[in-house]
Amino acid sequence: MPILIIAPEQIAVSPPVGGSVEHSIYQIAKGISSKHQVTIISRLCRENLVGDPQQEN
Fold first, then answer.
1. Confidence (pTM)
2. SS3 14
């Protein structure tokens, strides 16, 4: 079953630091992903991007 989770807070999921709501969303999605197709919509976290041109400067 496809499941969409929209994160309500201002921190990306999975959070780079802190963020108990974001951490909970991530853990729930991780737990149900073996039986369901899970998509999470949250804020962009530049620390999690690979090859981000802003980090190279």
1. 0.61
2. coil
Res 36 pLDDT > 90? yes
Strand partners, 37: 2
Neighbours of 1 (CB within 10 A): 7
Two structure tokens written together for 14: 């999975």
Q: How confident is the model at residue 20 (pLDDT cuts 50, 70, 90)?
A: confident
User: What's residue 56's pLDDT?
Assistant: 46
Residue with tokens 């969409």: 4
Cα gap 37→57, rounded to integer Å: 37
Q: Are 22 and 9 in contact (CB under 8 A)?
A: yes
Q: For 13-48, b where at least 16 C-beta lie within 10 A, e where not — what string?
A: bbbeeebeebeebbeebeeeeeeeebebebeeeeee
